[in-house]
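Hi R.,

Here's the input for the glutamine complex you asked about:
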Amino acid sequence: MGTKAMELAVSNPLCCFVSRTPPDRSPKVRAFTVRCSSPGAALALGLAERPWKAWDARLVLEDGSIWKAKSFGATGTQVGEVVFNTSLTGYQEILTDPSYAGQFVLMTNPHIGNTGVNLDDEESKQCFLAGLVIRSLSISTSNWRCAETLGDYLAERNIMGIYDVDTRAITRRLRQDGSLIGVLSTEESKADEELLDLSRSWDIVGVDLISGVSCQTPFEWIDKTKSDWDFNSNQRDGQTFHVVAYDFGIKHNILRRLASYGCKITVVPSTWPASETLKMKPDGVLFSNGPGDPSAVPYAVETVKQILGKAPVFGICMGHQLLGQALGGKTFKMKFGHHGGNHPVRNLRNGHVEISAQNHNYAVDPASLPKGVEVTHVNLNDGSCAGLAFPARNIMSLQYHPEASPGPHDSDNAFGEFIELMKRAKQNA
Ligand SMILES: NC(=O)CC[C@H](N)C(=O)O
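And here is the predicted structure with glutamine in place:
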């Protein structure tokens, strides 16, 4: 056992190690998941913390560490990549963000579940993430919008959750060593070694996760941000623009914000041909956020390439990474990514610093981009590329989330900039 492993085992009575060997980083089996669902049993677990329950779940990480925990939500065995999210609020939006497909979200905020879940804060129709890892599950829910407890919500959607885990220790581990694959299991019959083997034989890199979360057929989107929650609305001039939005795992609030800015929106699947999009003669095209490795979806990069220069485009997160590649650049996997609602970003065009919502593990390498492409935003935590523009071809993109949900609204004006881009292109047509 290495020094770090020993330190962890000593400081965490619920952490032990299954192996003395370092994680095997050799090529892995792709997209192998197992889930033994038992919603009935999961529902029976309920939400309330039971003082007699010592632990009934294990999170086994590929580095050999085992974290004993208490389960809530679904039961079974699930593999995924563990990422930590530093948002203080908004766990429901995080749970329903399709970009988390294939990942366990570990919340660094220790107290989760206290506001339950409500009918309004869904960012998609489904929870696509692998599971939720938290320190402390609130024993009561109290909020005027609460419709259900977090535990019931997860159980109904067959999503596993664990609590009473030392989330600080796991976060430090991920920060020091980089992202790790983990296996979460409530099945006592499975040996630690079996779960460890599973974690080491699965990988998220190189897998197309977009096809599992995108819509299947085009549809019109009409919902706006509810007027009680809307802001800056008096700055809009009422002009309408038709936007085709590619659904790579799109968050509803991107659509709500575009609708609030006066856009008529047609949402299309990730495989929708560029030629069909161009036939619709849109005023602009949006490339959405989405899960997984941006270099594993060459068909989407090709679609973006065919649209560039023919309509103004706006890429958000995965959309930004696809745009970067379509322009000739490359993406790379970051050590542990950015997930949270408190990332400072400098807008290099006006010098302003925006506090932003972020959720990505990959980034565009600015050195790989051709001449003419401008880096417009930089993440101030690590200097990574947070935004691009190519004004000559009406292209703009952000690595982070101007739609927030959850997160601060500092960057909402990016939607206004997209409107201006479409307006100028229309005037110059
Ligand atoms: N939110 C997103 O679109 C995430 C993009 C990509 N899956 C990443 O992890 O970098």
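One thing worth noting: The longest helix spans residues 413-428.

Cheers,
M.
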